[in-house]
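FAQ

Q: What does a record look like?
A: Structure on top, sequence underneath. For example:
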């Protein structure tokens, strides 16, 4: 983690009006940093690296425009991969990309009037109506960054840039996922009225089956969560590492478990493990292990093929800034992405949640 002195932060902007995501310099820079084949670029590679070295030399002399142009090139190489990963939110909700000048607006509906009957005793049949409404939500700025070494760039070594790019993509993806999952948890848990939420120390077959039964009315749900919760489902399917002779566990389920330790379906629903890495900068309360990037104890039941009540917004694109870290004295580059998320009010019941209270749910 790093801090930038507020009085020296410079948000990147460049005089190079031709620079964009499709510029040859961006494409070649990205290919070199990622170790891709350069043969198709021919002599353009030497020309591009000569341009980068010139920018690096100017940046070492504290030229702000050169620093900004380098950071913009790096930003253009990070953004496409990060965008692909953020788009994976389509799996759990409705994802929308809006402009910087737009306000994220949640859309929900209420059923008004008397429920319709099959036949009226006299006169017409009374019908219920659906009333749509919109309301604004806030956004969260997701940030990451790394120290830019202009000397290494000047020498033509892009190894540190490649490491920095991967760090930014991974950290921002994980932070965005954490924000979305915690927003879902809080919305479902704190909902008033009908909700399909249960919480206990450890999952129970009854709570999982109950959530599956109720959420399936909205469509076949995907069951998703961290390994610590999805791995418990194997026991509900009747799996035992030592299978008795009279076992009624299907052979196909046993083969799934032998291969990956998890079952792929339960109750007719796909079981999907959410990748969850360690946060190597933080330890757990006991101090005997690292914390994980995402909550471990949340098992979500998300209907597929329906309009999800979870709505996720990305406002604008990736932005970058640079400045001096007062602790290390290094020139730091920071990348920001603005994300908003929420579960539509009054529709929280369309996502099921079983929470294992043995695990802490972090704040964001």
């Amino acid at each position: 983690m790093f801090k930038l002195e507020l009085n020296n932060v410079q948000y990147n902007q460049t005089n190079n009006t031709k620079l964009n995501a499709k510029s040859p310099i961006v494409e070649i820079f990205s290919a070199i940093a990622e170790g891709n084949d350069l043969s198709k670029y021919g002599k353009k590679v030497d020309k591009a690296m000569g341009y980068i070295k010139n920018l690096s030399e100017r940046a070492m002399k504290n030229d702000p425009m050169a620093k900004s142009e380098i950071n913009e090139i790096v930003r253009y190489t990070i953004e496409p991969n990060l965008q692909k990963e953020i788009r994976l939110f389509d799996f759990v909700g409705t994802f929308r990309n809006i402009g910087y000048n737009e306000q994220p607006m949640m859309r929900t509906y209420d059923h008004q009037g008397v429920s319709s009957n099959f036949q009226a005793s006299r006169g017409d049949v009374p019908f219920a109506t659906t009333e749509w409404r919109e309301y604004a939500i806030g956004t969260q700025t997701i940030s990451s960054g790394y120290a830019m070494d202009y000397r290494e760039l000047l020498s033509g070594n892009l190894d540190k840039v490649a490491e920095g790019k991967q760090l930014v993509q991974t950290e921002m993806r994980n932070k965005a996922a954490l924000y979305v999952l915690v927003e879902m948890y809080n919305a479902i848990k704190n909902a008033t009225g009908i909700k399909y939420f249960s919480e206990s120390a450890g999952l129970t077959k009854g709570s999982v089956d109950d959530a599956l039964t109720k959420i399936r009315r909205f469509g076949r749900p995907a069951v998703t969560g961290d390994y610590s919760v999805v791995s418990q489902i194997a026991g509900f399917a009747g799996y035992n590492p030592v299978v008795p002779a009279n076992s009624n566990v299907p052979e196909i389920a046993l083969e799934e478990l032998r291969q990956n330790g998890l079952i792929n379906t339960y109750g007719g629903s796909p079981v999907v493990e959410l990748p969850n890495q360690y946060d190597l900068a933080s330890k757990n309360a006991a101090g005997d292990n690292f914390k994980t990037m995402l909550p471990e104890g949340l098992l979500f039941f998300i209907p597929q093929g329906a309009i999800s009540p979870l709505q996720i917004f990305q406002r604008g694109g990736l932005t970058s800034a640079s400045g001096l870290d007062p602790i290390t004295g290094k020139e730091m580059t920071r990348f920001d992405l603005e994300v908003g998320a929420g579960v539509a009010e009054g529709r929280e019941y369309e996502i099921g949640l079983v929470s294992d209270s043995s695990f802490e749910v972090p704040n964001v």
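Q: Is there anything notable about this one?
A: Residues 113 and 128 are 5 Å apart (CA to CA).
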